[in-house]
Structures are given as C-alpha cells and as structure tokens.
C-alpha cells in the first residue's frame, strides 16, 4: 500500500447530518414530503444526485435548478461537518509511513475549506472535486487522472469509500478498494473503522 485515494462524505468526514438538513430544506422549499429515514437510506445506497434526479423526474421539476438549490444549502452547512473517528491520526501515521494521499469526491471545491478547517488539508497531494469536471463515479476518469498524473502503482493504490459506487469506481480504475460499508470481495476490504487501515498497512 503506497497510495490512498479517499472519498469525502461518509469516509473522511461525517457529513450526513449536514446533507440531511440541506435536503430537508430543499424538500420544504419545493413543498415536498420529506421521509428522512427513506431519503438518508437512499443516498447512502445510491447518491444525492440520484435522489435529486428521481425527485425532479417524479415531481416534474427542473433538475439543474433543484441541484443548484440543494448545493447552496449544503455548502451553507459545511460548518456542521465533523471528522470521522481516527481520521486525523490515520492520515498522520500513514503519511509518516510513506503513503501518499489524495481525495476524489463529488462534493464541490469547498471540500478543501472543510479539510483546512479540520486541520488535515496538508496531508493530501491533490483534492479532486466536482469542480474538476470529471465524469462521476462509478466512472474511473478521476482516479485514472490521478494514476497517470502522479505515476501511481495500481497494485499498491486503494480507493477508500463507504458506498457500493466507491467499490465500483475502484474496480473500473483497476485499483483495490477499502470500504466502510460494503462486504469483502476480490478487490474490496471491508473495515468498520478507519483505524483498521493501520493494520492493513502493516499486513
């Protein structure tokens, strides 16, 4: 293991409370019923974009307008985002062990601001966000960009995430996966806590 490419929401940071609040406000703005349990389950299994697309189609709303409204509400709640347990210490220890770190997230450029606020931005060589314009996961375009730009060894590179789409993105890019929510497989190692990455590093 020489490189870790990290997902952001639900992996490095616990942002689901902020996302949930932003979605609640978005639903209220468009006078829609908000079933919090169903909505949160859906976005964890799929994605916020998939949810908004589904809502726009079912309610005959403009998807771009709906997405823009949600994004504004989400970014207004970035202060609610907290680090996942052991995040900082795992980044520090793996960096000291020679591991390179990158971020690839669907979140906007404010992901950098959150990482700065949490005191960990310095651990990442590059943070790739939606502002870079790459095709969304599970397309491997952004991971391939990092592999090529930094001449990363695929066999020693892992994409760390929390959803099925993260495992699929890793597989499509030809790298391995570490995931907080998906079962063990040929390419994926399931972990319950980020601290388990240290044991994987030493294995």
Secondary-structure map with pairings?
Layout: E1 3-6, E2 13-14, H1 16-29, H2 36-45, H3 48-59, H4 63-75, E3 82-83, H5 87-96, E4 100-104, H6 110-117, E5 124-128, H7 141-149, E6 157-161, H8 164-173, E7 176-179, E8 188-190, H9 196-202
Parallel strand pairs: 1-4, 1-6, 4-5, 6-7, 7-8
Antiparallel strand pairs: 2-3
Helix pairs in contact: 1-4, 2-3
Describe this protein's structure:
Helix 1 crosses helix 4. 46% of the residues lie in helices and 15% in strands. The protein starts with a strand and ends with a helix. It has helices at residues 16-29, 36-45, 48-59, 63-75, 87-96, 110-117, 141-149, 164-173, 196-202; strands spanning 3-6, 13-14, 82-83, 100-104, 124-128, 157-161, 176-179, 188-190. The longest helix has 14 residues, at 16-29. The model has no long low-confidence stretch (mean pLDDT 96). It has a six-stranded parallel β-sheet, sandwiched between helices. It has two domains: 3-14 and 82-201, HAD superfamily/HAD-like (Rossmann fold), CATH 3.40.50.1000; 15-80, Putative phosphatase, domain 2 (DNA polymerase, domain 1). Strand 6, helix 8 (164-173) and strand 7 (176-179) form a beta-alpha-beta unit. By secondary structure, the protein is an alpha/beta fold.
